[in-house]
Amino acid sequence: MEKTVYHRHLGVYGICVNSGRLLVIHKRGGPYAGRFDLPGGSIEPNETILRTVEREFREETGLQVRTLGNVGTKDFVVPWTRDGFEHTHCHHIAIFYEVAAVSGDIRESPNLYDSLGAEWVSLDRLRSEPCSPLVTEAAYWLNNGRLSEGTTFYREWEIYEPID
């Protein structure tokens, strides 16, 4: 029997909605490559959680945002391996914030790091497109006013090739 080894990742993410559309990025790498994902990511040294959200939005979408409030914390476990690493799964702990766009234009998103650009996507379209667990959870929150309970485990997970 194969031993389960987690790669644990803690990140901060923003849920930004405008006219019934959710702001997502096109994920470049990691277990969510080729999927819609939420803007956000790791907390850098000497950085607060709220500064992380603001920086990640600038980097991944080109937008300046204002934090409206904490939505909550949720974790996910997805099968994921990488060459040279011993882990079998990604244990992703996500801190969610609701944010509002203040300025900027996603057509000028810098396409840096893990983002191949940003897009406003209708909530209906999210049902038919490949999404990260973060986007799925954001849609759940938008529909139910709360995050789902407990850890979400994915027994099977497909990693797509990012579209350059």
From TrEMBL:
Gene3D superfamilies: Nucleoside Triphosphate Pyrophosphohydrolase. InterPro entries: NUDIX_hydrolase-like_dom_sf, NUDIX_hydrolase_CS, NUDIX_hydrolase_dom. It comes from the Bacteria. Keywords: Hydrolase. The keyword Isomerase does not apply. GO terms for molecular function: hydrolase activity. Belongs to the Nudix hydrolase family. This is NUDIX hydrolase. It comes from Cohnella zeiphila.
